[in-house]
Structure formats: structure tokens, C-alpha cells
Design brief:
EC number: 2.7.1.16
Structural class: alpha/beta
Largest sheet: 7 strands, mixed
Domain Carbohydrate kinase FGGY C-terminal: 293-481
Domain Carbohydrate kinase FGGY N-terminal: 10-281
Number of strands: 22
Radius of gyration: 23 Å
Number of helices: 18
Keywords: Arabinose catabolism, ATP-binding, Carbohydrate metabolism, Kinase, Nucleotide-binding, Transferase
InterPro entries: ATPase_NBD (IPR043129), Carb_kinase_FGGY (IPR000577), Carb_kinase_FGGY_CS (IPR018483), FGGY_C (IPR018485), FGGY_N (IPR018484), Ribulokinase (IPR005929)
Shape: globular
Helix content: 25-40%
Length: 560
């Protein structure tokens, strides 16, 4: 960290993740990171029952508490400013990024419905986290009807919209709790909601509106289409729509209430909301077309700018200005990456090997293919290319000689194969991918990074910041505050990247070509209708869980 100097000005970036929020204080002239603080969400991910012994939740639910988001502003922001040792009066802007699609229903004034007393025990009144996958049947209907009607927007999303997105979650809300749906005057991304909390002005950002809200060519899906899905769904766009602003614009100014929360000056610039992956492109100096940023953590999001629009099979979307103004931003993703490695360490590795460090050391000692395994990386479903969150993981080739480190390496490789599938889909559609820049917590695993370079056969750079999203939000705040004329100049001055840290080895790349061919065969067979055993198993599981829950509720009623 660099020291504080007289006359310098600063911005704050706040990165809202799955389990915590991080604030970062950044010097505007050079992007120096001066102080950071993290606040862990008290309720984290709500997946089994509402807080404090509340209503049980069905399978595949993932909720959050909006009060946890406010606490990040109250706790992490003042702590980061204190750690930086800067005068808060020299902070001129704040920007935020969020997981997406993380959405919540609110009243017209922004009050979350889960904070309305009579609705607090209604699960649909809470924030639906990005990895809430219980709306898969609704997504399937949305996709089927779009293709049946020839809706022009479906091609911009690779032919399928995701169960994670606004329309699937909104349709689930309507059909499972119509009263909460009617009470929801707004259905808003958490990124836009927290900006609303900061500046008192309701806005929408073009990024989430395009990628998660199916907004293309200036319009959302038509009322005719929505009422064909459900006669009562025709008003959904009215709940989504709001003042739409480009990224790096100023959404408003910090209110007195938010200034009291954060300790920052009232009236400073609040940047338009953004998404954790997309905002990172600026901090990685990766706004030029052809440079793909992979933000690797519990999941991975892939973003790359292109010079023109193209329809790419299985993509999360292509949006005009979705990453930066003046370019077409492409997004893809993998629903489980670090979560898969963590699952193995926590639940499957023997105690003496139950650490990422030890398993990585042992896995690194073997040549490519020595374990005789290939895995499918669908432990949390498949976001791209198949867009099906009912799919599940698989390991092929297990024998009595298979060791824990063999499985661990196969899981690392499986996620790299998933990324290669995405890259090849881009290239086949005419979207260049020349090199990769990796950001996120997994960059510290050198074996994993080298595997990605070898499997994709491309040079791989590493972002020069451990806090890529928070730095990206700070860079956007600097533009919103008028310190730079555009995000491009701000990115060059404040972002940083270590170029081509990992280069593909020709021999390992050839060896991985053979393994990748087997991965593709399994991918297409189990993911594209060759055998739907994964979907049948998921249906059997859900029925068993729901039956057990029903029996439990009946038993409680008898006791009462």
C-alpha cells in the first residue's frame, strides 16, 4: 500500500459477494489501494429455513437478508477509511458491485417486502440470491414459449435464459405466492437497490437490465408474450422498469442517512450499480475486445468485449454497453468452480489430506492424464453452455487405485474444460478470445492457473489486485465523480494486470486435447438429451425431500 499524500482524492469501492461485503479505499491518481475491510453477512445464504427458526425452504432455494447489505455500509466502509488513514472529506465518490442476478421485491419506496411484518415469514418476500435455482421449471417454460413464438431476443441469450434471472424468479414468485407478487411494486436487482439506499434515487443499470432482465434493443419482452406465459404476468415489466443509466454514470449523491452510515461526506457522487464480474474488466485493464476476464471464485463469470453483436449458443447474453460504453459485452459463466473444490475438501477428502494446499501439492506431481479420470463440473448445475441447473456432477474412471489427489486434480481440470467449451463457443460465433486475464480468489493456486493455460492453449494473465471487483467499483466511482472523462482512461490509470504469467506448454496442451475430447463426449451425452438420468435423479430427490417435509409438518400439526 502507498502512503497518503496531501492534495490526493479518493474513492470507495464496495463489492457485495455471496457471503460478505468488502469496502476498498483507492487513490484516484494511480489506483493505489490504501485500506480495506470486510463484513461477513450475519445470515449468509439462507437455504434451509428462514432466520430464527422460521419457515422451512424447499430444495434449491437460496435467499439473503437485505439488512446484511446495509450493515456492510455501516461496518466495512468506515473501517476501510480508518484503515486507509485518509480524511473522509477527501473521498469524492462511492461505487458498488453485486452478485447477479440477486433480486428482491420491494414497495414503491424501496422497503424490502421481507421487512413488512406480515410478510416476513413468506419466503418469496426475501432476496433471491443468484444461486437460487428453484425457478428452473419456470425458466424452461419461458424458453419454450420464446422459441414457439419466435421471440427475437432469445438468440441474444444463446437460445436459453437462466433459472437465475429476473423473469424466471419473477414468474416463480407470481405462481407460488400471488399475494407477495401483488404487493411487490418493484422487483429490483440488489445492485440497484443498494444504490437506491445510498442516494435515495431509484435507478437501473444497463448491465443487469440487459443480461438478467432480457432488455434488448430498447425494450423488454412484450406484454403479449408475458400474458401468454401467465395472464397475471403482464405487469411484470412495470415492476422492473426504472430510470436506465449507463455504467460509470452518476446515479445520484450520497444522502444524509447514508453519510451517517458510512462516515463519508454527504453529497458525494454515487456511481450507477454494476455486477461483480463486469466491473472487474476495468480493474484488469481488459476493456479491449478479445481479452476475456474470468472472475474465479465459488463460481466463475467470463466477460469479454466485442466490436459487434453476435448470437453465441449457450451464452448468458450480449448487451450493448454491458461491460463498457461503446462495445458489445458478452457474458458466460460456470455455476460451480471453487465450490466444487471446497466440497471435495470438506466432504470427501480423508482428514490427513483435507486441505487445498496438500491436495494441490500431490496433484501437481502427476503428469497429465495419469489419474485416468474425467469429470463433469456440474455440481451446481450448468450455466453455460447448457443453461440447466438441474444437471449434476460426474466422475468417470474411478478404480480401487484412485487416490484423493487424483479426484481433486480431475475436478480442477473439469472446470478448465468447461471454460474451454465457453471460449470455443465464442470463437465459433466470431467473437475473438486472444488471451485470458484471471481475477478472484483462485489465482493463488498456481497448478489451477497452469491447467487453464494448458487446456485453453492461451496465455493467461493475472489481475494485479486481490480485490478486482472492489477496485473496479472504485474506478467507476472515479468516473462518476468526474475525475476521468471515461472508464477507458480511468482503467488505464487505476487498473493493473500482470501479463501472460502462465503460458501453455505444447506437450501438456496436446495431452489435454485428448482428455477434453472425452469431456465433450460426456458433456453432450448427459447435457444434450443423450441420457437424462441426472434430471430424473433430481426429480426423485426433490419428491423425496418434499414428502419428508410434508410428513414432518403433519406430525407437528398433530402434536399441536
Amino acid at each position: 500500500m502507498s502512503g497518503v499524500e496531501a492534495g490526493d482524492r479518493y474513492v470507495v469501492g464496495v463489492d457485495y459477494g455471496t457471503l460478505s461485503g468488502r469496502a476498498l479505499v483507492v487513490r484516484i491518481r494511480d489506483g493505489a489501494e490504501l485500506g480495506t475491510a470486510v463484513h461477513e453477512y450475519r445470515n449468509a445464504v439462507i437455504s434451509s429455513a428462514l432466520p430464527d427458526g422460521g419457515t422451512p425452504l424447499p430444495p434449491d432455494w437460496a435467499l439473503q437478508d437485505p439488512e446484511d447489505y446495509r450493515e456492510v455500509l455501516r461496518q466495512a466502509v468506515p473501517a476501510a477509511v480508518a484503515a486507509a488513514g485518509v480524511d473522509p472529506q477527501h473521498v469524492i465518490g462511492i461505487g458498488i458491485d453485486f452478485t447477479a442476478c440477486t433480486v428482491l421485491p420491494t414497495l414503491a419506496d424501496g422497503t424490502p417486502l421481507c421487512e413488512v411484518p406480515e410478510l416476513r415469514q413468506r419466503p418469496h418476500s426475501w432476496v433471491k440470491l443468484w444461486k437460487h435455482h428453484a425457478a428452473q421449471p419456470h425458466a424452461d417454460r419461458i424458453n419454450a414459449l420464446a422459441h414457439e413464438r419466435g421471440e427475437p431476443w432469445i438468440g441474444r441469450y444463446g437460445g436459453k435464459i437462466s433459472a437465475e434471472w429476473q423473469f424466471a424468479k419473477g414468474l416463480q414468485l407470481l405462481e407460488e405466492d400471488p399475494e407477495v407478487y401483488r404487493r411487490a411494486e418493484r422487483f429490483i436487482e440488489a445492485a440497484d437497490w443498494i444504490v437506491w439506499q445510498l442516494c435515495g434515487v431509484e435507478t437501473r443499470n444497463v448491465c443487469t437490465a440487459g443480461y438478467k432482465g432480457i432488455r434488448q434493443d430498447g425494450a423488454y419482452p412484450s406484454t403479449d408474450y408475458l400474458t401468454a406465459l401467465n395472464p397475471d404476468f403482464g405487469d411484470f415489466v412495470a415492476k422492473l422498469d426504472g430510470p436506465l443509466l449507463p455504467l460509470a454514470d452518476k446515479a445520484g449523491e450520497l444522502t444524509a442517512r447514508a453519510a451517517a452510515w458510512t462516515g463519508l461526506p454527504e453529497g458525494i457522487a454515487v456511481a450507477v450499480g454494476n455486477v461483480d464480474a463486469h466491473v472487474t474488466a476495468a480493474s484488469a485493464q481488459a476493456l479491449a475486445p478479445g481479452r476475456l476476464v474470468a472472475i474465479m471464485g465459488t463460481s466463475t463469470c467470463h466477460v469479454v468485449n466485442g466490436a459487434h453483436p453476435a448470437e453465441v449458443a449457450g451464452m448468458c447474453g450480449v448487451v450493448d454497453g454491458g461491460i463498457s460504453t461503446g462495445a458489445w459485452g458478452y457474458e458466460a459463466g460456470q455455476s460451480g468452480v471453487g465450490d466444487i473444490f471446497g466440497w471435495f475438501v470438506k466432504h470427501a477428502a480423508p482428514a490427513e489430506l483435507a486441505s487445498h494446499q496438500r491436495l494441490t501439492e500431490l496433484a501437481a506431481a502427476q503428469p497429465v492424464g495419469a489419474h485416468g479420470l474425467v469429470a463433469l463440473d456440474w455440481w451446481n448445475g450448468n450455466r453455460s453452455l447448457l443453461v440447466n441447473h438441474d444437471l449434476s456432477g460426474m466422475i468417470v474412471g474411478l478404480t480401487l487405485a484412485t487416490r484423493p489427489e487424483d479426484i481433486y486434480r480431475a475436478l480442477l481440470e473439469a472446470t478448465a474444460y468447461g471454460t474451454r467449451m465457453i471460449i470455443e463457443a465464442f470463437v465459433e460465433a466470431g467473437v475473438n478470445v486472444d488471451d485470458l486475464v484471471v481475477a478472484g480468489g483462485l489465482t493463488s493456486n498456481e497448478l489451477l492457473m497452469q491447467i487453464y493455460a494448458d487446456v485453453t492453449n492461451r496465455p493467461l494473465g493475472i489481475i494485479g489486485s486481490a480485490q478486482g471487483p472492489a477496485l473496479g467499483s472504485a474506478i467507476h466511482a472515479a468516473v462518476a465523480a468526474g475525475a476521468y472523462p471515461s472508464i477507458h482512461e480511468a482503467s488505464q490509470a487505476m487498473g493493473r494486470v500482470h501479463e501472460a504469467v502462465y503460458r501453455p506448454d505444447p506437450d501438456r496442451a496436446r495431452a489435454y486435447d485428448a482428455l477434453y475430447a472425452e469431456y465433450r463426449t460426456l458433456h453432450d451425452h448427459f447435457g444434450r438429451g443423450g441420457n437424462d438420468v441426472m434430471l430424473r435423479l433430481r426429480a426423485i430427490r426433490n419428491a423425496a425431500v418434499e414428502s419428508a417435509a410434508s410428513q414432518h409438518e403433519t406430525a407437528l400439526e398433530v402434536v399441536v
